[in-house]
Design goal:
Helix content: 25-40%
Largest sheet: 7 strands, mixed
Distance between the termini: 48 Å
Number of domains: 3
CATH superfamily of the largest domain: Periplasmic binding protein-like II
Order of helices and strands: HHHEEHEHHEHEEEHEHEHEEH
Structural class: alpha/beta
Number of helices: 11
Number of strands: 11
CATH architecture of the largest domain: 3-Layer(aba) Sandwich
Shape: globular
Length: about 290
């Protein structure tokens, strides 16, 4: 087996879809299918379960993927270590976040302090981040959950209040201590299940024996504020969103419940090689969100 075949398998396993994998790899779909077939013949097992045109990673494939992720990750670590030793450029860091609003506040300062570093950002849900760290597709993650998995190391960056964002002129605008039962029937704007805002809303409403009346559900957390400003409904948003800038079309209220907060974590894979650019970004993020510890 060769590295190209292993990389092909890794991408197909992630997508569980030949066409999408071929698009990412920028090769023809039949070529991807032949590569997987040759790899299965060489290994003597089927890596994928096939049902018509659909494929799913099988038991043998899942076991093999763990090894492939580790092997390709080690090679990528080696490449980056040698590049740093050769001092080719100022380095690069790739950061994943659930919403890019999380990094907009720290980027100007970091870019000013490290102008030669190539900073790359990736937006994705928290449940996809562990895989991206294992495969070295990202170096660091900013997540509203500590993430779980072998070698993953979370550090708490920020603990902040979660507020109720409402359209300007809403009866709850400016209220202190809004009780969850008062939100019964209010149109709610929220990301889909799995996002921290949705999990928090479901938990708070369930405690009151209620369910949120969701009118807008999507996977773009950064757009929630715009939807509230457009008058579509109300939303749970971190204080960071309020502090990012005033909008005449949005007002804020505080919830009565004591656990209306979210924790922002910086997560890395401690087994991965961390070039100077990655270490510097992690240190800068800690100083930015926790200035009293710097």
């Amino acid at each position: 087996m060769d590295l190209l075949a292993l990389r092909c398998f890794q991408v197909v396993a992630r997508h569980e879809h030949i066409s999408r994998a071929a698009a990412e790899l920028r090769v023809a779909q039949p070529s991807v299918s032949r590569t997987i077939a040759r790899l299965e013949a060489e290994l003597g097992v089927e890596l994928f379960e096939r049902r018509g045109r659909r494929i799913r990673l099988g038991r043998h494939g899942a076991a093999f993927l763990r090894r492939v992720d580790r092997a390709l990750g080690e090679l990528e670590d080696g490449r980056r270590e040698l590049a740093e030793a050769a001092r080719t450029g100022s380095g690069a860091v790739t950061v994943a976040a659930e919403t890019l609003m999380t990094v907009t506040g720290l980027l100007p300062g970091y870019r000013g302090a490290h102008p030669g570093v190539d900073v790359r950002l990736r937006q994705c849900p928290a449940d996809a981040m562990a895989h991206l760290l294992r495969t070295r597709e990202v170096d660091l993650c900013l997540a509203s959950a500590p993430l779980a998995g072998p070698g993953l190391e979370p550090v708490e960056l920020l603990r902040e209040e979660v507020l109720l964002a409402v359209p300007a002129g809403h009866p709850l605008a400016g209220r202190e201590g809004v009780a969850v039962p008062e939100l019964e029937g209010e149109p709610f704007i929220t990301p889909g299940p799995g996002h921290w805002q949705r999990d928090l809303a479901d938990r708070l409403f369930a405690r009151a024996g209620l369910r949120p009346a969701v009118v807008c559900e999507g996977n773009e957390p950064g757009a929630l504020l715009d939807m509230v400003g457009a008058g579509l409904g109300v939303a749970l948003l971190p204080a960071m969103a309020r502090d990012a800038g005033l909008r005449e079309t949005v007002s804020w209220a505080r919830l009565e419940t004591p656990d209306s907060h979210r924790v922002l974590w910086l997560v890395r894979d401690r087994d991965a090689y961390a070039p100077a650019a990655v270490r510097d970004f992690a240190d800068f993020a800690l100083a930015h969100f926790r200035p009293t510890t710097s």
